[in-house]
Amino acid sequence: MLPKVDLSDIADELTRLGDEIQRVYDDSEQAVEPAPQVSLNGLAHLLDAVRAGEAEPRGEPAQVLRPVTGAEPDVLLEHGLGLLRQLSEVARRLNLESQAQAVEVLAVPFACWMLRRGGELQHPQDVVNALAALADRVSQPEELAELYGLMGEIAEGIGADRIHGMDPSDPTDPWLVLLINRGIVATRSQQPALMEEAFNAIGEQLPEHAPYFFREGMGQMEALNYPTHVREVMQRYFEKWCSGQRLH
User: Fold this and answer.
1) Average confidence (pLDDT) over 238-247
2) pTM (2 decimals)?
3) Which one of 17, 23, 126, 228 is least enclosed by Cβ atoms within 10 Å?
4) Who contacts 205 (Cβ-Cβ below 8 Å, separation ≥6)?
């Protein structure tokens, strides 16, 4: 199940996870700093501040948040992602792997919420990793289509400077990883329109990676017995980018 882009849901999940992490922290004999309550308090104050912005008379979201919180949406976004990262690291040091992963996933709804209110994502690594984790958990086409939509929001919210500074030779570059994973999610959703949109972006922005992606994609068509309408889309892009190359 995908997380909802809703502040109340994020807050409720943080309360649940925070109670579990704090309980283990209190019983632990190892010294773990900072205490989980430090991150939890910071997140609670941040969510309260941005929620107060929502209660203001309607206007441009960024203009509403600035006077209420005293900060730009970009700064609030980065601060929140940093606090989530801090909390997940504490949980991991307490050997609470599932709770650490659950905290990390909250980067997605929080980032989308802030992007919808004028934020720009300058450091997308945590959010891209969280999207990849979600992609591993969902399998139903309708959920995959919803996840594709969230990936699109993140892609649109990444700062232009970050995209222009992408290193296509680095397989861990967040922009590269996001576009490739979005192509995979589009394929798994079995919706041709999403596939075409994602595949066009790969071809336009990652041309050196496109032949490999579509060659692998054609292999998956056979291995996983995709329906005909999905195979036809993949075949078309394979022929465009891999003309004269053999499948292996």
Assistant:
1) 76
2) 0.90
3) 228
4) 163, 175, 179
Cα–Cα distance measured from residue 50 to residue 108, given in angstroms and rounded to the nearest whole number: 16
Residues 131, 150: Cα–Cα separation, whole Å: 8
CA-based torsion, 135, 138, 143, 144: positive or negative: positive
Per the DSSP assignment, residues forming a β-bridge with 121 are: 158
- Of 41, 31, 19, the C-alpha closest to 94 is 31
Judge if 149 and 210 occupy the same domain: yes
**Euclidean distance between CA atoms 117 and 114, whole angstroms:** 5
Does the N-terminal peptide bond of residue 168 adopt cis geometry, omega within 30 degrees of 0? no
Positive/negative CA dihedral, 72, 78, 82, 83: positive
pLDDT in tens, 59-75: 455 454 555 455 688 99
Full domain range(s) for residue 197:
122-248
Q: What is the pLDDT of residues 118-164, one digit of tens each?
A: 899 989 999 999 999 999 999 999 999 999 999 999 999 998 777 88
Contact between 104 and 10 (Cβ < 8 Å): no
d(CA 147, CA 247): 29
Q: Of 67, 101, 120, which residue constitutes the final position of a domain?
A: 120
Measured distance CA(151)–CA(129) in Å, rounded: 11
87 with 128, same domain?
Answer: no
Please give the single-letter amino acid code of residue 136.
D
Distance CA(207)–CA(200), nearest Å, equals: 10
Question: Which DSSP letter does residue 158 get?
Answer: B
Q: Is the pLDDT of residue 58 over 80?
A: no
